[in-house]
Every structure is written in C-alpha cells, then in structure tokens.
Amino acid sequence: MAAKKLLIVESPAKADTIKKYLGKDYTVIASMGHIIDLPKSQLGVDVEHEFEPKYITIRGKGPLLASLKKEAKKADTVYLATDPDREGEAISWHLANALNIDINSKCRVTFNEITKSAVKEAVKVPRGIDMDLVDAQQTRRILDRIVGYKISPILWEKVKKGLSAGRVQSVAVRLICDREEEIENFVPEEYWSIDAVMTDTKTGKAFEAKYFGEGDKERKLTSGDEAREIAALIKSSVPVVKSVKNGSQTRKPQPPFTTSTMQQDASRKLNFQAAKTMQVAQTLYEGVNLGGKIGTIGLITYMRTDSLRIADDAKREAVQFLEKEYGSEYVTPRNYKTKKSAQDAHEAIRPTSINLRPADIQSKLTNDQYKLYKLIWERFAASQMANAEYNTVTASIDAGGHTLRASGSNVKFKGYTAVYVEGSDTKEKKAKMLPKLDMGQTLGIKEIEPNQHFTQPPARFSDATLIRELEENGIGRPSTYAPTISTIVSRGYVVRNKKQLIPTELGKITTDIMKNNFKDIVDVEFTADMEAELDKVEEGKLDRIHVLEEFYPPFEKNLEEAQENIAKIKIKDEESDVVCEKCGRKMVYKIAKTGKFLACPGYPECKNTKSIRVGTGAQCPKCGGEILVRKTRRGKLYYACEHLPKCDFMIWDEPVKDEKCPECGGLLLKKNGKKILCQNENCNYERKVERSK
Q1: N-to-C CA span, the chain
Q2: Taking the model in full, what pTM does it have?
C-alpha cells in the first residue's frame, strides 16, 4: 500500500491546482492563510519578558485546525507548502507546532511557480523550517502590533474613535501630507516660450521649432513683452539653417517585473489599484484551467518579490521562442542586477512558460486576468530582446541673431518595442523626424507664437508614484504596498480623486500629532533603517530580541510624553444636505471600512444611518425603482434596486442608462466594458461598446 502524504497550502485555489499534479498518494488541503496569530482583544506581547508573543488559534479557525490535525494523523508524511516568503514560513512554523511536526524535519516545501514540473521537483527536496525567516516575520508582526496597539488608544482618546497608527501606514500618510503641503505652499513663477512652425522651402514640409536664445547662449523669457518683441523680430527675419547634427540613440528594455514595478505599470496602463493588481496576480499564480492537454496551471511565478533574477531554464525558453517569433537580431539574452536590499529568494515576476501567449489563452481568462497576464508576458519577453534604435537629428536655426532649435527622431530598429513600451507618469509628446535640411538653406515661417506658462507644483501621489516613493526610500516590502494604500484610504486618512491620493483633514491632523509626538514612527529614514534590520534578522545576522529591545525603551518614553502633551482635538464631521427622517437634523458623513456612509449627528439619541445613494439612471425591471451602485463588505461593486430588501433585484454588471433593449424592451447591461447585452435570458441581443474617439 502506497504511503499517504498530506500537503498543506494556503488557499483552496492553489490546493485544487496542485492536487491534479501529485496524484492519489497525496491529500492536498488549504489552511486558509494564518490559523494562529496574536489575539485581537489585547496587545498579546509580553514587553517585560523578551517580547514573548501570545499566540492563539484565530477565532473561527478551530474546526479547520481540528480537521488539519485529523488529516495529519492519517498521513505518513506531512509537507507544509505555504507561500515562499516570510509570512508563508511563519504560517508553516505555526502549523508545524500545532500538528506536532519537528521543525527541523524535512517538512517544508517551496516552489516559485505552480506548474507540474516545479511542484513535483519541490516535493523531492523538502527542508526544515527556516527560523531566520520566521524570526523576521515575528519581529515585524510584534513591532507593528506594539506601534498599533500602543498609539491607537491615544488617538482614540485625543482625536477620534476608530483611528489607527501603523509603522508603514503612518509614513505613507506623512508622505502624502508633506506633498500636499508642498503643493499648498507652492508659488508659481511665470515664464514664456516662443513656438514656431517652420517650412522647408525645398519641399514645403512643415516642422516645429522652439526659441533657444541669442547665438549659442540660452535665454530664459520671463515676460510677455519680452517674448512678443523677440517673436516679432524673428517673424521679420529670414531664418537660415546654421547647423544640422545627425545622430543615433539606443534604448534598453526594462527588467522583468518586481511587485512594485508591476503595481506601478498596472496602475498607469490598466488603471488598476494596487490591491486589485495583487488579487488578479494571485489568481494567475495559483492556477487557471486552460483545458485540453495543459489543464490547470499557474501562469506566473510568485508575485511578491523584489528580485530581478530569472531562472536559466526560463531564459533559454524565452530566447528560443523570441528567435522563432521575431528573428535572432531581435534577441539579446540579459541578466539584471538586483539591488542590495532586495530579497533574492524568488525570481522576478514572469510567465511560467513564454510559449503560453496571451492571445492564445485569452478565452480561458477573465478580462482582468488577460490584461495583467499580457502585461507581465510582454514585459518579460521584452527584457530578453535587443535595444531599440533611433535616428536623431537636431537643427540650429538663426533668425536675425536669435536661435531656434528643432529636433526629431524616427525608429531605425524596433528591438524590444516590437513587444512592449514602458508606461510613464508624465505625458510624452511623440517626436517626428525633421525634413532633410541643409546648412545655409533658408526657411519659411508659417506660424510663430509666444506662449505664457507657469511653473507647476509637484504632482499628487497616485498608487504608482506612492509605491515608487516607498520602494525608493526602503519603506515596506513587496507584500506591504497594496495593503498599506488600502488601509489609509479605508481609514479615511486619504481619499482618491481619480488616480490622485489626497489627504483628508483627519489625515493631516493625525500626521501632525505623529510628527510632534512620535517623530521616529513617521520618519522615513528611521522606518527604512528598521526594514534593513528586519532583513538582517532574516539573513541570520541580527537577533530579533536585540531589534525589539533597541526600539521599545525610547518608544515607551514617547508614549508617556504624548499622553501628557497631546491636547484633545475635536474634528467636525462634514455635513451633507440629507435630512434625517427620524429627527430632522442634517446627516453627516462618516467613514467605515466599507467606505463612506451617512449618520445622524444626534447619536446616541438618534442612531439613524444610511448608505450614500449613487444612482445609475437605469430602471429596475421588477418594480421600476432606480438601480443603485452598492458595495460588498470587501469593496466589490454590485447593482441593486433602491427598494432593497422589498425588491430583491441585484446584478453584478453595470446597467445601461436611458436605453432599453431594442428587441424585447429589457434592461441592457455592460459586460466587461466590451459589450452590451440584454439582461433577459431569453433575448440574444448583443453589441460591442462603441469607443469614444
């Protein structure tokens, strides 16, 4: 009889995928993330006895743990295959202790990608629990718990119930508040440009040129009178080409994605918030059923990484594929250097097989999965391709002693841009090639116009730019960027306006309190140093107790001083124009984890609350009421009748406003932003969404 083996992973989706690879000798079950953690009701850390954590079984997880123990008893061998990072190592450690598994035995299995070959190879080489990784996770968890549970009650007492402080989240809010202060204090300065449209007298072709200065000396224009006077002089002159410089330029491809760069590019190109990017990436990593011979397979490598390393096998496969698809001249195998502070346990984010082209498997993916997989696939493919090459030309033009300059470029060789072009946080104007100009030739002036400008304040942070700022400053790690942004928005410290992250009054007040009383906690350099110390704990170079003992005494002193020094602050709730139907007061906006809602300011005498009404303009097909936009507890949008619960009409797809189905008169729905179809199951009406030009 074959030995029975139990393999424990974190999620059911991953368990389903792996089960298909390992066969009947293996039972594969999910722990559903952490089973054991610090208690929510108390600090759970003994600060007087070497910061000993008090771990308990998470509420509601008792039956699951009992089930895992039962399965473990039936098995001859138990493998712990949680995620291959600090958090995953800690979950495996907790499971090993709960299931009476020797942490030094070969019980731990890790894989960077969920493919049949990777999983089967991984179970052949199990190892013991890496206690350095576990200690790094425990230190972070204890630090975060101490900061959150010690500062938050002071904020509740002095400012507002429900506020929270956090080691990384407080720094993120500070960065956003500091940027807002820069914007508010910014004094714009006036400057002028002179833009001309010149014509090549030989061919009649027009091209753009910009004012540079007098002769070879650059001149800044600070007033309209000055700019208009020079523009008039240029207009009355006969422009002559003074010099033409032809050259070339090359552009290298970017490395494959890390967690940070994936979140940034998905924000710029796909308009995904960081949390959404990680949710979609998780499904691609855990496995998608492609049907046929391939079956279920993880499509990307592990998505929490700051390494740029690529496995040799993956690189070889990419080179073979690209040579076949584009030709050898398009291929340049590359290694990318990972920065010193990165954790190099994992590869960069890449497709598990470059042969699984996005277009070939699109029908098996959701719209969001396809978009993100395509982005990851293209970035990885481009990373192993040749440089893009451009022809460039710069012309210097003399016009009555004043100099204008014109430049242009065109593509000489596409290289990696045949597959992928990087996203940017600023709009770049596409350069065009100039007509062929000769030194000494005269030019015509079609248009010349002085233009007023003002210097601009720094831009507000978006998800992409905040993640880049956090990463560049060494704050947080790949796993923390998305939850940090979600937390500061859900707690009401920051609001989103389109892509911009803007601090609220609450965020500003809380940041001021933190800066004045807990300056280390919101200090960028201090937080980055703490991250570096956690990395040293992971590497076995620093003892976790030492890190906590260095941190706690000055922090405890700050707590005592803050309790005495912080004055009570009353934050006035924003008033709405909605009248409470129970007592007649004007309702105010409040913030919960699920977002904003309306509440009566007469609490506790009047406890009336209501959700904020966001209409769609579409009519409920059951009762004729308006269909409203609503959110689940996890923040997912759905659409329901305004008369809920009396009318139970509810849909996940966005209804179309002011239009009925032309065939049956039913409700029309927008599906994935791509097509419009009738909600009536018996009607086959469907059309594509027209793109606005």
Answers
A1: 68
A2: 0.81
